[in-house]
Design goal:
Layout (H helix, E strand, L loop, with lengths): L4 H8 L3 H9 L8 E2 L2 E2 L3 H15 L4 H13 L2 H38 L6 H7 L1
Antiparallel strand pairs: 1-2
Helix pairs in contact: 1-3, 4-5
Amino acid sequence: MSVTIAGLARAGGVGVETVRYYQRRGLMPTPDGAGGVRRYGEAEARRLRFIRSAQAAGFTLEQIGELLALDAGHDHARARALAQARIAELDVRIAELEAARNALRRLAKQCGAARDGPCPILAAFDG
């Protein structure tokens, strides 16, 4: 695989400016361009997919940078600690979302039972 930045962006499902942003942040390499054209290979495509997957898991770009550095050093303990911290953050967020869902269910039930007066859902968000 030898593609331009546009081909790399397409392969990673991002825009060219996203690749450039990752390069400025030090997450992606900027290859030398023979004849003014920079070419990217499979290693860069893999790295871009890793970044996108890690973002989808909720890691920040700073954490992703650390994960990439850890991969080079094979620091499994630190990578595991970062993953466990992210899991704990997700558990908190999931609990918050479940509480919101339960509150909405109660309001929807009240709304279905109410025949007169203001809608309980609208009243709950109003005050």
